[in-house]
Amino acid sequence: MAFLELEALGKAYGGVDVLQGISINLSRGEILGIIGPTGSGKTTLLRLVNLLEAPSCGNIRLEGLTLNDLTEKEKLLARRRMAMVFQRPVMFKGSVQENVSYGLKIRGKKDQQIVKSALEAVNLSGYESRDASCLSGGEMQRIALARALVLQPEILLLDEPTANLDPKSAAAIDRIIQSLVGQSTLVILATHNMLQCKRLASRVAVLMKGRMVAVGKPEEVFDLRQEHLMSEIAVPW
Ligand SMILES: Nc1ncnc2c1ncn2[C@@H]1O[C@H](COP(=O)(O)OP(=O)(O)O)[C@@H](O)[C@H]1O
Ligand SMILES: [Mg+2]
Q1: Which residues pair with 22 in a beta bridge?
Q2: Prediction pTM value
Q3: Which ligand is nearest to the CA of 209?
Q4: pLDDT tens digits for 92-111?
Q5: What is the homologous superfamily of the domain 1-81+154-163+181-237 according to CATH?
Q6: Rounded to whole angstroms, how far apart are CA atoms 148 and 161?
């Protein structure tokens, strides 16, 4: 049984299909890179997995459990096994400490040590008492990642985690994602950055107009023989 199974998943908004026939089996410890131009459905796919939206058709199964069939309470429990970092993270009013520990708090857990280690992991040690709303874009993005890491999620969903960042901040985030390799976290990384995908992903899925047009190891998907596909998807980027 796959850890996470997407089966013929589809989503339509107002009768328009934005995702169609998405099927893939994922294991713990994988980093799946989802690559595709803007508007191809990457964010929608992450939102479906995170149960923020219901699919129009198909199924999502987590360890064999069909998530669509769950009650709201059960869905909440399933969601607590995941964490999502949004493309434009929003900071809550208050300190960095409050922002990073928020998820732990609502889960009834308190652990200053976990917050401290997460801030170390994102290279923001000592930022605990800073006002979160006064951070730079790169710092906010790293705080958002720390906020997800403290939850020790089984599934980590990252939506363009380095878009809009300077190269140094982007490299720092890449290193953190890389450090998750070898842990049992399943990471799903949506990006339009082919190089980042090549560097980090253990498998790559290419989305085009809501369809998964290729899936495989980076060296297979970015193979020269697939160049026609790559140049085709590269156009609108
Ligand atoms: N809530 C929504 N209502 C209507 N259309 C939406 C909504 N969310 C996304 N879309 C549309 O779905 C398509 C895929 O969007 P998105 O998943 O954000 O793509 P990506 O993340 O790859 O840029 C786009 O055409 C977008 O306009
Ligand atoms: Mg997006």
Answers
A1: 9
A2: 0.92
A3: 1
A4: 999 999 999 998 888 888 77
A5: P-loop containing nucleotide triphosphate hydrolases (3.40.50.300)
A6: 12
